[in-house]
Amino acid sequence: MGKLGELFRTHGPEYRRRFAERMSLDQLRAMHAIETCHTPAAGSALWRCTRCGHGHFTYQGCGNRHCPSCGRTAAAEWLQKQSALLLPGVTYHLVTFTVPEGLRRPIRSHPRELLDQLMRTSSSTLLDLCENTKWVGGVPGVTAVLHTWTRQGEYHPHVHFIVTGGALDEKGLWRNSHPRFLVPVPALSKVFCARLHDEIKEKHPELFALIKPSVWNWRKKKWVVHSEPVGSGEHAYRYLARYVYQVFLSESAIGQHDASGITVRYRKSGSRRLRTMRLEPMEFLRRFLQHVLPSRFCKVRHYGLHHSSKRKTIKRLQAAMAIALGRELPEPIPCDKPEPITCSKCEADMVFEKRFTRLQRLAFASAAPRGPPS
To answer: Packing angle between helix 111-131 and helix 185-203, nearest 10 degrees?
Structure first.
């Protein structure tokens, strides 16, 4: 059982008593899932020894995408899949679009509409500038990952893009960008601000009315877009993979906790020094739950050469670039698989047999199956 689940089971009932009327259905569902994760309420899995037939039950995870105890295997598989598309000899760039503080509260209050618009507008801005012949001059490969948090858990929506340092032009020829420069950041900021203004005003006029006019002054407000080269792209994908199947907090970040507060470990951006902060339980739950995304919201999106329809194209590019450089195709990042479950009787490997709900397990136990499960 994870630390986060323990904290939710301890403090969740009080949090719901105080704030349930203001919580979304998705937040309530996430709370319930994390509270039951790896407990009898989540159901059990029966494993059977391949040698002696002994059975063993384990509690199942909740499978919620915000739970730090779940999704580690899925994140490793995602990383392996993305790294298999890296182009040899190409410098990748990490481009990050942020929004000013005046937009954060409206986005947090209306995440389904405005987070989607944030991702659509930032991606179209980036793709259009890359297609400009003054800069890259073609269609690059782009992977977008939405984050909504700072390292201390405050609400700060932004989109990270991993972009190929080059693109296919209209003739089907590869054009490398400058290894230290992709597109001009001031132009990205200006176009992004103007487009997001127009898109929200047209498609969500009732939400546009909630936003202060001064927010759209891109010169005075911090419409920050950051771009930097990140080498082969592997390190950037490793960083983003940690948060594809969870939000800002990992189990290891939770320190000492009691009825008065919870200690959380974190690092400031640009620093390696480990810091700690102490949060009152209700504030800790608030910071976590504000990052729960709407159901079925897609936080990872692929554009250009990274779109699923372009898999054959990027594989051909990989092969051509490897031949031109006299290299072998790069190996995908290995996928770390969970440790196998071994039998407590004979230490042989056990294999998965069946999943059970709580009631099904009680019925199964009363039937006295062969090799009684532990």
So the answer is: 140
- CA–CA separation, 22 and 67 (whole Å): 21
Q: Tens of pLDDT along 255-269?
A: 999 999 999 999 887
Give the pLDDT score at 361. 66
Report the distance separating Cα 155 and Cα 290, nearest Å: 7
Containing H/E element for 353? strand 350-356
Report yes or no: 98 and 156 within 8 Å, Cβ to Cβ: yes
Q: Hey, what long-range contacts does 269-274 have (CB within 8 A, 24 or more apart)?
A: 269/151
Strand partners, 167: 175
Structure tokens at 139: 């269609």
- Strands in 274-279's sheet, in edge-to-edge order, are 254-258, 261-267, 274-279
Joined tokens for residue 48: 């059977």
User: Burial, 341: exposed, middle or buried (Cβ in 10 Å; 0-12, 13-18, 19+)?
Assistant: middle
Reduce the DSSP state of residue 338 to 3 states and report it. coil
Residue 97, phi then psi, degrees to nearest 5: -100, 125
Domains in the chain: boundaries: 3-65+338-366, 72-248+291-325
* Tokens of residue 27, six digits: 């937040």
Q: What would you report as the CA-atom Rg of the chain, rounded to the nearest whole angstrom?
A: 24
pTM of the predicted model, to two decimals? 0.90
